Amino acid sequence: MTTFNAADAAFHGFKLVTKDPVLWVVLSVVQAAISIAAMLVILPAMGPILAFAEQSAAGAAPPDPSDVLAAYGAFLSRVWWVIPAAWAVAVVIQGAILRFLIFGRRVGWVAGLQLGADELRLAVVNTLIYVFIFVLYFIGALTLGVVVGLTGVAALVWVGVFAVLAAVIYFGVRLSASAAASVGERGFLVLAGWRLSKGRFWSLFGAHVMLVFIGIVATLAGFILSTLLGATFGANMVDPTGGSVDPELLRALVMNPGYLIATLIQSFVGMALTAAWVGVGAYVYLTLGAAAGYSAGGPEAERQISTFE
What we know:
This protein starts with 5 loop residues before the first helix and ends in a 5-residue tail after the last helix. It has a domain at 6-113 and 201-308. It has helices spanning 6-12, 15-19, 21-57, 65-103, 117-151, 156-174, 178-185, 192-196, 201-232, 247-254, 257-288, 298-304. Helix 4 crosses helix 7 (178-185) and helix 9 (201-232) packs antiparallel against helix 11 (257-288). The protein is mostly helical. The radius of gyration is 22 Å and the shape is globular.
């Protein structure tokens, strides 16, 4: 692959679905299982919090602050370890997708999945990029607040918000191929995306915009389908808790066959979109990597990438 094309970049990740549907199914099932497991862990602690909200809506007397603090403490004690676990699974899935899109086949311990050096690289590179984007946003917002406060010109708020958002998008797009390069080059290449995307910002921006619109349509369609199928088994996907505050009833609602089927459908859609989003970076790395001085996946990718043509 030598010619860069924005449309091809946007659709490259969907080749996970068309070229290896088994891997797509495996990753989707893993994602659905993690989502359901997280719900089962968190929901019991949500019972008291939902009860407080219900009492407040009914105009009842405010609960004792110590009870509220204890309820949120129990909830956070579960969330704090669910979030790192979900993050680890997300990195494992990202690694499996990138290895397939770069090398043209499953590369991993089991069905393309592994928790090894690639995942460590992705965790570090992703975290550093997210921290950088957050710091950029924070500095921009702080600067905007100071400028508006000193000048008193309210109209500057909209100009500043647009400028901060534009900066975040610009750096996010320019660094979008860093994860793929880190997997392909077997290194911690945080700034590789900047090097690879030189002179290609608008093309990459267009590819991401296309995916945003595709994602909106696909997510809406997936939600409608999952809601309809879930309803046939008595699951309410619009309000899964059914207004319940009983932890055991909440567990039963989550384990409803309709809810499980709907969650799986949404995972299939979500995984295809995740592959497409990740695929932009993989496409950039494969098409522009050699010109930027990278191996672009090396001889193995050169041999395997022909399967995508």
